[in-house]
Amino acid sequence: MARTPLTREEKENATNEKKASSPAVEPIANGKGAPPKVPRRKATNHDNAHENGTSTTSRKTEMNGSKESISPEALSSPSINEATTIPSQLPLVPSFVACMRAKESMLSLQSWVTLALTLDGRDKMTKLLQYLSRLAAYLVASSKHSSQAKRFVALKVSLTNSRKAFRLGRTLIELHRLKQLKLWESFIETCRVSKLADAENDTPSQLSLACRAYQSILSHFASFFASTDNTASTASSTPFLMVLGSAVKLLGLAGFWAGDNVNYLTMSKLFDNYQSNDSERRMKRMQLQSKAAVFANRSYFMGSLAGLYVSWRAYYRFRRQQQSEQAAAAAAPDSNDSLQSEQTKAKQFALFTMLLKSICDVLVFSNNPGLDLWQTYRGRKMHEGFHCLCGLTSAATVLYNNFPDAKK
Question: Which residues pair with 405 in a beta bridge?
Fold first, then answer.
C-alpha cells in the first residue's frame, strides 16, 4: 500500500512535538546549540587555602566538622616550616670575597708591616718577587726585547739565594714538630682499637697484623716520638694515616732544609779546600751544590706528596663534619648561625688554600732538577709560564694564611 505524503501543516506539527519533548537548548551567538556542559574541576585544598587565606590543615579541620584551628605559632614551628631552618650547604670551592672579610684590609699598611715581621711572611714575599721576576724574564725573552731578560734572570737568582739565608737551622724546627706530633701515641691507640675489633670477631685483621709488625720496629724510636707533656697519654682523635702523613711531610721538609743549608754554605765557600787551585775548588763546589740541590728537591717532593694527602683528608673531613652539623642544626636553629657561618667559611677557605698550596708544590718540584718528571714522561719541561703561576699561587696561599685576622 503506497504511503500518502504529509502535507506542510502535518510536517510543522511533527516538528513542534519533537521540540516540546526534547530538553531546551539555549542558542548562542553563532546560531548553533551550546556545547556540552564540561564538569567543573574540584577545588583542591591548596586553592581553598589561597582563596580564603587559610592553611591546608585548617581547611581539613573544617571539612571534618571540628572546631579546632591551628595557630600561627604552630605554623611557624620547625616541623611545618622546616625549609626556613635548614642552613645553606657550603660550596665545594669557597668564595674568596666572602673569606677575605675574616682578614684585615689589604689596603692597610699596618697589615703588611705585621706580616713582614714574621719569618714566613718575609720569605713568601721574597718568593713572590722571585717568581714575578722569573715570569717577567720569560715574557721579555719571548718578545722583541729579549736582551733585556738578563736583568730579570739576575734578579731571580739573587732573590733565590737570599731566601736560603732565612732557612738556616730550620731542620731543627721540623724535628721538634715531629716530636710534638704524638705519632707513637696515635699508633698505640690504633693498635688498641684493632685489638678490640679482633676480640669481637675472633680473627686478627690485616690492620692488627700490621700494627704488631710495626710496633716492634717503632718501639726502638719510642723515646724520640713520645711527647714530654702531661697530655701525651691522651691519643689524638686524628686518624693514624693523617698523623703518619704529617710525619712524612715533616721529614721531607727537614731533608729539604738540610740540603738547602748545605747548598748555601757550599756556595759561601765554607767547605772549600784552599790547598787546591781555584778551578778544582770551583768544580768540587759545583758538584757538592748539585748533589745537595737534588737531595733537597727530592725530599721536598716527598713531603709535598704527603702534604697533599693530609690536606685533602683534612678538607674532606671538614666538609663531612659540616654536613652532619648542618643536618643536626636543622631541628635546632641557633641565633648565632650567621657568626658561626662566617667562621666556618673562613676555616674552609684556609683548608682549601692549604690543599691548593700542596697541589702547586707537587707540580713545581716535579719540574725541578733531580726529578724532572715532565721531561722524563712528556719529553719536555713544564711550560715556564705555568711553572711561574704555580709558584705564585703557592706563595699567595701562605701569605693569606699568615695575613692578620680581622678584629672581632
Answer: 103
